[in-house]
Specification:
Elements (H helix, E strand, L loop, with lengths): L7 H27 L4 H10 L1 H4 L3 H7 L5 H10 L13 H15 L1
Length: 107
């Protein structure tokens, strides 16, 4: 299905909306990396904020301290989370296992 043609105003609006979404996701990931918020808080935000909810799980995990691309990928495989899964698409069991994994590391 081809994308619809946008007029100049609609294109500008779409670009502005995308820029705002990138800034919101970047801010959340930076706060996570800095330890200002934790994974549980990010998951709570995802429930109420459409932009955060559309963030990929892999991006969030990679933003966490001491978690890189390889560890995030392995963790997602172990917890049976698809590489393309977004925060809002996580099931309750997947959320519980993710939180339990990082809760046990803090102890």
């Amino acid at each position: 299905m081809p994308l619809p043609e946008l007029d100049a105003d609609a294109r500008r609006e779409a670009l502005e909306k995308a820029a705002v979404a990138r800034k919101v996701r970047a801010r959340v990931k930076q706060q996570l990396k800095a330890g200002e918020i934790d994974l549980a808080e990010v998951l709570r935000l995802a429930d109420g904020d459409e932009v955060v909810g559309k963030t990929k799980v892999a991006e969030v995990l990679e933003a966490m301290p001491k978690v890189g691309k390889v560890r995030a990928r392995r963790l997602m495989e172990r917890l049976d989370i698809s590489p393309s899964r977004r925060l809002r698409g996580l099931g309750s069991k997947q959320r519980e296992r993710l939180l339990a994994t990082f809760a046990s590391e803090r102890e």
